[in-house]
UniProtKB/TrEMBL annotation:
Keywords: Glycoprotein, Hydrolase, Signal. The gene is LOC120273343. It comes from Dioscorea cayennensis subsp. rotundata. InterPro entries: GDSL, SGNH_hydro_sf, SGNH_plant_lipase-like. Belongs to the 'GDSL' lipolytic enzyme family. PANTHER family: OS05G0133401 PROTEIN, ZINC FINGER FYVE DOMAIN CONTAINING PROTEIN. One of its GO terms (molecular function) is hydrolase activity, acting on ester bonds. This is GDSL esterase/lipase At1g09390-like.
Length: 373
C-alpha cells in the first residue's frame, strides 16, 4: 500500500533521510517490496543511449571509459546524473526506449535523446514525440500484462511512477548559437514553456501524478560556448562564464518555476517538483576547489589546451583528440557534457533536497518511515 505524508506520496528507499527530494515522489516502493518506477524525458544530459539506438549511430571511445569501460551511447566518460539517481533508489539503470537488444523496462524507461528540444523543427525525437512514445509503451504494456510478458508494470505502477523532465537547454542554446540577442531568445521562452506544459499535462491526463522537472544549467559556463562565442558575447561574469547565456538560462528558469507553481496550485492531486540544476552546476564552478576540481571551464576531452580545450571539429572522439588523464579534476567531459565525477556530485545534490521546490518535509513522521538498517 502507499505511504502518504503531508498529502504527498513518497517512496522511501533504504538510505539517508537527506535523500528525500526524489524519494518524496516515488511510492510505495522499497518499504513494502513494490518497485520504484521512473520514466525520464530529456536530452543528452540524461540520454543513456537513445540517440545511438534511434538513429543507428556510434559514439566511440573514449566515451564510457570510466565505470562501464566501453561505449554505451552516453555523452560522458561514465555515468550520468540519472544513473546515480537510479543507484540511490536501488533500481537498475534506465534502458533507452529505442534500444532493441538487452533492454530492461521493469523499473521504467528512458525516453531522452541527445539533441532533443521542445521544438519539433528538424528534430527526430522532440519532447512531444517522447511523450507519444511513452503512451505507446503504456498501451503495449497494458496489452501484454495479462499474458505475463512485457515490462509487467501494472496500472498502479504507472500511477505511482515518477515522471522526470530535463528539457529546454537545446531550445535556448540553438538561437544563442546563431548569435541571437538576449531579447530575441527571451521572446521564444513562452512558447518553450508552453510545450513543456503540454507534455507534462499529457502525461498527467494519462495517469501521471508525480513529476520531477529540472531547470536548465548555466550555459555560459560551458567550455564550448566560451571557446566559440566569447568574441560575440564578450561580457564575462566574476567566474569567467558568459553573462548573456547565463542570463537567458535564468530567465527561462524563472518562467519554469512560475509554471510549476501554477500547476501545483491547479492540480492539487499531483506533485510538480522543480529542481534547480542551475544553482547546483553554478556552485560547482564558483566553488570548484571545494569539490576537488582544478579546471571548471575546461574540457577534459578536447583540443587546443587552456583555457577551454575546445576547437570546433576537433572534438572528443575525433582522431588525434586525447582525453585528460584524470577526468575527476574536471567538470566538463567534452565541452558540453559533464564528467562522471561532476554527475556524481550533481546527483547527490539533487537527492539532498536542498535544491528543490516545494522543499522536502523532513519531519518525525517521515523519518519514522525509513526502514532501520
Amino acid at each position: 500500500m502507499s505511504v502518504e505524508v503531508g498529502g504527498r506520496f513518497k517512496c522511501l528507499p533504504r538510505f539517508q533521510l537527506e535523500t528525500i527530494v526524489l524519494v518524496l515522489l516515488i511510492s510505495p516502493s522499497l518499504i513494502n517490496g513494490a518497485k520504484c518506477i521512473l520514466f525520464n524525458f530529456g536530452d543528452s544530459n540524461s540520454d543513456t543511449g537513445g540517440l545511438m539506438a534511434g538513429l543507428g549511430l556510434y559514439l566511440g571511445p573514449p566515451a564510457g571509459r570510466q565505470f562501464f569501460h566501453r561505449t554505451t551511447g552516453r555523452f560522458c566518460d561514465g555515468r550520468l546524473y540519472i544513473d546515480f539517481l537510479c543507484e540511490g533508489l536501488k533500481i537498475k539503470f534506465l534502458s533507452p526506449y529505442m534500444e532493441s537488444s538487452g533492454s530492461d523496462y521493469t523499473n521504467g524507461v528512458n525516453f531522452a535523446v541527445a539533441g532533443t528540444a521542445t521544438d519539433a523543427n528538424g528534430i527526430p525525437f522532440p519532447l512531444s514525440t517522447q511523450v507519444l512514445q511513452f503512451l505507446h509503451f503504456k498501451n503495449r504494456t497494458r496489452g501484454l500484462f495479462p499474458q505475463g510478458s512485457g515490462s509487467m508494470i501494472s496500472e498502479k505502477g504507472f500511477q505511482n511512477a515518477v515522471y522526470s523532465f530535463d528539457m529546454g537547454q537545446n531550445d535556448i542554446a540553438t538561437p544563442l548559437n546563431a548569435n541571437s540577442s538576449y531579447s530575441q531568445v527571451i521572446e521564444t521562452t513562452p512558447a518553450i514553456l508552453s510545450r513543456i506544459e503540454d507534455a507534462i499535462l499529457n502525461v498527467y491526463n494519462n495517469g501521471g501524478k508525480k513529476f520531477l522537472i529540472y531547470n536548465t544549467g548555466p550555459l555560459g559556463c560551458l567550455p564550448q560556448k566560451l571557446a566559440l562565442q566569447q568574441q560575440i558575447y564578450s561580457e564575462l561574469d566574476s567566474y569567467g562564464c558568459l553573462a548573456a547565456h547565463n542570463n537567458v538560462s535564468k530567465a527561462f528558469n524563472t518562467g519554469l518555476s512560475v509554471l510549476l507553481d501554477q500547476l501545483n496550485s491547479q492540480y492539487t492531486n499531483a506533485t510538480f517538483v522543480y529542481v534547480d540544476i542551475f544553482r547546483i552546476k553554478y556552485d560547482l564552478v564558483a566553488n570548484h576547489t571545494k569539490y576537488g576540481i582544478d579546471n571548471p571551464l575546461m574540457a577534459c576531452c578536447g583540443f587546443g589546451g587552456p583555457p577551454y580545450n575546445y576547437v570546433f571539429r576537433k572534438t572528443c572522439g575525433e582522431p588525434n583528440v586525447q582525453p585528460c588523464s584524470n577526468a575527476s579534476r574536471y567538470l566538463s567531459w567534452d565541452g558540453v557534457h559533464n564528467t562522471e565525477a561532476a554527475n556524481s556530485i550533481i546527483a547527490s545534490k539533487i537527492l539532498s533536497g536542498k535544491y528543490s521546490k516545494p522543499p522536502d518535509q523532513v519531519t518525525d513522521s517521515l523519518q519514522s518511515l525509513i526502514p532501520s538498517p
